[in-house]
Structure formats: C-alpha cells, structure tokens
Write a structure and sequence with these properties.
Layout: H1 4-30, H2 35-41, H3 44-57, E1 58-61, E2 64-67, H4 69-85, H5 88-105
Antiparallel strand pairs: 1-2
Helix pairs in contact: 4-5
C-alpha cells in the first residue's frame, strides 16, 4: 500500500539524486570555460577509472595488500582495447565480457 508520505519520500530521493547530476551541466552550458579548466577536466574520467581499477586489483586483508590476479588478467585486454580504440563503450564491454568469461572458467 502506497501512502502520500512514501510517494513524497520517493520524489524527494529522486530530486536529491537527480539535481546534483543535472545542475552542473545546465550551468556549464551557459558559460564558456577557460581552456586550462577544460584541459584539467579531461583528466577526471581517467582519475576516477584508475581509482576504481586499483581498488579492484589490490585488496587489503588485515595488514597485507594482496593482488587479485583474476582482475589483473581481465585488466590486460581491457587496457589494450582502451589504448587502441579510445572508445569508452568498447572498453567497458571488453572488460565486462573478459571478467565474465574468467569467472565462468575459474
């Protein structure tokens, strides 16, 4: 049973999630950013992706850092596709398919 409070809560959660993602695009569209800022912003996706990759490759178990070799093996073809094609979509597809096949075989 849906109550008005639940509907309000769902709409509120939607706005809190949606607004911070959309508002920056609306503001940036109206202004011209300086070239140095645009150059710096180009590195943001690489930094975020690198953080995600290193987080999955290296795992901390107590006081020891362990390398997850399954992720390292999946990283090799994914990085080759990323460097060769520079296509984010193709890179993600290769990474997901490679990891799925490795987990299927392991």
């Amino acid at each position: 049973m849906t109550t008005a409070t639940m509907v309000g809560l769902i709409i509120g959660c939607m706005l809190v999630t949606w607004l911070p993602r959309i508002l920056p695009f609306l503001f940036v569209r109206a202004i011209t950013l300086p070239p140095i800022l645009l150059r710096w912003l180009q590195y943001i996706p690489v930094c975020i992706l690198s953080a995600l990759v290193f987080d999955s490759v290296f795992e901390k178990r107590g006081n020891i850092v362990v390398i997850d070799w399954l992720h390292v093996i999946a990283l090799v073809p994914t990085m080759l596709v990323a460097v060769k094609t520079r296509s984010l979509s193709l890179t993600v597809i290769v990474g997901v398919v490679t990891m799925a096949l490795l987990r299927l075989l392991a």
